[in-house]
Amino acid sequence: MNSKLFGTSGMRGIPNVDFTPELVMKLGLALANLTHGNRIAIGFDTRLTSSFMSYLLSAGMLVGGAEVRNFGLIPTPVLAFLTSNTNCRAGAMITASHNPSEYNGVKIFDGDGMAFSHTLEKKVEDLMAFNNLHHVDSKSIGNVKRINCVDKYTEMVKESLTLKRKWSVVIDPGCGAAYSIGPRLFRELGCKVLTINAQPDGFFPGRPPEPTLKSLHLLSQMVRETGANAGVAYDGDADRMALIDENGRFVSMDQLIAAYGARLLSLKNKKKIVVPIDASMCIEESIEAVDGNVIRTAVGDVNVAESIVKNNATFGAEASGAWINPDYSLCPDGILSSLLVISKITSQKGNPTLSKFVSLASRYPILRKKINCSKKLHSEVIEKLQSELSNLMPGKSNIQTIDGIRITSKKEWILVRPSGTEPVLRITVESKSTKKTESLMKEVIKLIENIIIKLS
Known about the structure:
Blueprint: E1 11-13, H1 21-34, E2 39-44, H2 50-63, E3 67-73, H3 76-85, E4 90-94, E5 104-110, H4 118-129, E6 144-146, H5 151-160, E7 168-172, H6 181-188, E8 192-195, H7 217-226, E9 230-234, E10 241-244, H8 253-265, E11 272-276, H9 282-288, E12 293-297, H10 301-311, E13 315-317, E14 323-324, H11 334-346, H12 354-358, E15 366-372, H13 378-392, E16 398-400, E17 405-408, E18 412-418, E19 424-431, H14 434-455
Helix pairs in contact: 1-2, 1-4, 8-9, 13-14
């Protein structure tokens, strides 16, 4: 068994191939051992294999003496919230998030509703790798209790925010876990709601689970045709969100983070936000304009959450749409985040639209691509790139190596980082001109391809 099981956001794979029944049960047993047979929460998304995996995971927990609280089909942020709210020692969400339908996975949370730290992930991996697992005797086997208390989450959200103006919103849960609770919360907060893909279906027939510019064309069309104020979309487990503005245009998440973050910090005493190394330079511009500070971290919501705690930050977000709002939870929450954005906009004078709010931040040409590269070559390629990339950006530049290598100058930056889940290198380039961004991307790809050829 591969001792490295966790990627940038939990475990992912194909059930019965990567996730054998033995592996899933073993994971459940490891969690029971780690929590000393305490109470563990379980939830799952709409994928066809989710119930299969929930039974196996529960079985492993039970033979380790744990008491299982099964919350059923719910979004990941709701499971994280209920893990803490119902005094469970850990939570396990069965989901592959934005991955295609044939995939599934497990995200694990601690008793505070925060994703397992890398230290806790390593403890789980070690327990499983060395077969250092304890089974209880038959008298101490745990029990499963099925619980429906989603209302605890909805009440928390409704008590936490208000919408000063009641928008017309089209919501696309993508046939995922937010199919019911997403539209419900918007309606209960006073919005006029239309929905598409709002039925639970693990085949994801309406669109892929990841809400992207390409996959949300129908949502964009509906927003334009109905005259709605916005379109809101979620991924398979609703820890990510995407927005469509009133003109039917896909909202740049980098630009939205910058605009929302600046507005948030202008109202707070704490002036720090956390973003990963691959986020746009427009974020620094907007945050520094309100005397704030941007802290960069490695890609992955676990890294963002840990940095928020370490630096006592107000907010953390990834360009993927995974936002963490620590005043409410340390788990990325697409549902809450989309409502918080609309709440901030509707509270402003002058009745600004979503597009006007986002335009408060600059937007620069940014390209994100990936190139095939064997995982065993990742570290060597990154090492050789360091001096070569500097030649592409002569003059004063800053080098960061917290996740791959990022070289930043005043007007542009380049990032090359190894994927945590695929045999590829991910490349991000941003500049203040489209021509420069495109030329830098071509040069970086050519440079990497030449290095790979020499090393192969």
